[in-house]
Design the sequence.
């Protein structure tokens, strides 16, 4: 398991290719993380019918704070080091486990769920609260991105994804806990085997995932709600990108810099 401390990321591509994931410490300052936490509170209040483990990408299209978050220069620097200067967003989600009740995400591979062609994509996991073993941090199995994509099977109702890898595909003894502090991130390959346990603690585990892809990666769904071109050039005939959202008083959460979105 290889770690970096932002902004010193020399060698990150080699480490990512070797293990299938990396950890990057102190990417975000705590003032910004406090705003992200407020955004989670705001979404939970606005959408009380949604599970907190699944505040998903369909909420992104018209939300200027989400755009401000996933277009942050710090994230684009990291994405650029791994997939190059042409960067688009595929999806972004908050995945927040409530104290004592947060559900597990059984062992899986992200690529199984994504309707993409080319699959030149990375998944950034960001920590808003501490993310530790006792409150259900992400767990990863190093090197499993080299083993190819497996079929998934139906799983029990407790699993937030409803499908999982068969036991025969997973060597859980090789798993490592990705323990993060607020502002830290991990980045993993879409074929890497990973998951997380329930939150057995008395604390929230708040965080989420942002997926960046190259514009040569084709989204099969033409109505996909969270495709944004963030850096570089689009590819003709591949994907339709959403315009940058505008801030509307009373509809969106105010945040530092929101006037740039008026």
Sequence:
């Amino acid at each position: 398991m290889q770690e970096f401390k932002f902004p010193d990321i020399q060698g990150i591509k080699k480490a990512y290719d070797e293990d299938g994931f990396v950890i990057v410490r102190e990417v975000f300052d705590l003032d910004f993380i406090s705003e992200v936490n407020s955004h989670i509170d705001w979404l939970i209040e606005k959408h009380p019918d949604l599970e907190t483990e699944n505040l998903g990408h369909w909420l992104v299209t018209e939300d200027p704070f989400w755009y401000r978050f996933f277009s942050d220069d710090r994230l684009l620097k990291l994405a650029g080091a791994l997939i190059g200067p042409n960067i688009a967003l595929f999806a972004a989600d908050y995945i927040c486990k409530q104290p004592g009740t947060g559900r597990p995400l059984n062992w899986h591979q992200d690529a199984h769920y994504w309707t993409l062609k080319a699959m030149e994509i990375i998944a950034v996991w960001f920590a808003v609260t501490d993310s530790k073993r006792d409150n259900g941090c992400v767990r990863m199995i190093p090197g499993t991105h080299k083993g190819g994509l497996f079929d998934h099977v139906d799983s029990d109702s407790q699993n937030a994804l409803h499908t999982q890898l068969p036991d025969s595909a997973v060597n859980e003894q090789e798993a490592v806990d990705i323990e993060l502090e607020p502002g830290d991130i991990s980045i993993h390959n879409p074929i890497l085997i990973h998951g997380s346990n329930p939150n057995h603690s008395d604390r929230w585990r708040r965080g989420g995932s942002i997926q960046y892809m190259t514009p040569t990666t084709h989204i099969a769904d033409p109505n996909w709600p969270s495709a944004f071109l963030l850096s570089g050039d689009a590819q003709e005939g591949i994907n339709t990108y959403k315009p940058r959202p505008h801030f509307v008083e009373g509809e969106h959460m105010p945040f530092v810099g929101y006037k740039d979105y008026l």
Remarks:
- The longest strand covers residues 87-94.
- The two ends are 43 Å apart (CA to CA).
- The mean pLDDT is 95.
